[in-house]
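Quick illustration, no need to memorize.
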Amino acid sequence: MTGLCPLPATTAPATATFPLLLIGNFLNGTVRTLTAAEELACLLESAGYPVLTTSARMNRALRLADMLWTVWRRRHDYRLAHVSVFSGPAFRWAEAACALLRRLGKPYVLTLHGGNLPAFERSSGHRVKALLQSAAAVTAPSAYLQEQLRHCRSDIILLPNSIELRQYPFRLRRRARPKLIWLRAFHEIYNPMLAVSAVDILSSAFPEVELVMVGREKDGTLEATRRLIAQRGLGGRITIQAGVPKSEVPRQLASADIFLNTANTDNTPVTVIEAMACGLCVVSTSPGGIPYLLSHGNDSLLVPVGNAEALAAAVSQLVNDPALAERLSMAARRKVEPFDVATVTVSWKALLDSVMQRTHS
């Protein structure tokens, strides 16, 4: 991970570190923002752990082959493995990698990802439960996944996604202007076109409304979004930036007052955490893990999935009620302070050291 990690080295750990193998999506050479696996590798590397990673292959079959080959070929170079667990076809990568790790006598920790994982578990027979119970420890980045999969394993540990809080300057929004930002991959599950429809509705009441949409292309949704913007005649109000470097995210957020999250399926999105850290007023749909992260009327406004009228009404409420905007802005920053990388790093170190002591005693 050398050269990819933006985090500064932390104070040397109190206990000796040991080499780790992280198995997940390491695609930094292909996409412009770090994946969850890359973020974790950065965190652990900055804490002093020697970190090996796999895989950077884009092709699914080649990625699985690379994962298994690395697990075997580097078996003498790591003492503990960490495996990212997703739903759908990616679940097979975790299953196969963990099966080989067991054959090698290597302990492993799992981290659960994705708002679709609970539904996948319900349709997977006993596969998810068997995998979770085989691990030395299981973590989840959200209370949603922790609760939804508790019947598979009762001791799932909540370790949230982290951000380096000092990189996100806070500005209290005492008055929310209709300056909106949407920050996510252009994929149908994140429903970017809902944001476009909301701006269309808002434009009659707020002629000055503007929306910046930041994200990379995933499945053709970017072009569909551009077509909808043209059809609605909103080209002068909506700007699309097809992905920005991670380092530019705080600057992008600083220019807006209201953050839109329009997902149809979600867990605990880092983009929402970043927006809250900067003090933006968050308006979000409420699928999956979102109600476990956001509290309606306390640190955000939540609306039904797919409802453009409700999304626009929530934005209008914020613009017309400065007291509400200020209260949500302050509460949002306070809500995400425990997500700071320094705090999360301590928790990861404690977990990994505990697993090593149990499995190598």
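The first strand starts at residue 20 and ends at 23.
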